[in-house]
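Treating backbone geometry as a discrete language has practical consequences that deserve illustration. In the encoding step, the backbone of a single protein was reduced to a row of integers, each denoting a local shape. The amino acid sequence and the backbone structure tokens for this protein are reproduced below.
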Amino acid sequence: MIGQAWCVVLDCRDAGELARFYRRLVGGAVERPDPRWAVGDACVVLRGDDGAVLVFQSVADHRPPVWGAPEQQFHLDVRVDDLDAAEEAVVALGATPLDGGGADPAWRVYADPAGHPFRLVRL
């Protein structure tokens, strides 16, 4: 082993806005700044109750990825108990459905307010 996974960093136009979106989606506490995971005022850290860390980094010329395109780099999976209730909640937070209800009944795809894809997954 060379090292340990430390955190996931998401580029976006407004780090604070995106951190608050994910706090409402997965819980946790928004901290600003936290030099363990982020350097500078352009970063906002979300520490999950389970220890997971997401860092949001403001980038002026951020361009969101395109779901299903060859250049897509990654997406987040969020476990939920009820897909319909979770969909209603994330859309109210500002998420955009990307898969039209989904071909797979176990998951649905959305874009966060910065355009990053994530899936709600019923396990």
Q: What stands out?
A: The longest strand covers residues 53-58. The first helix runs from residue 15 to 26.
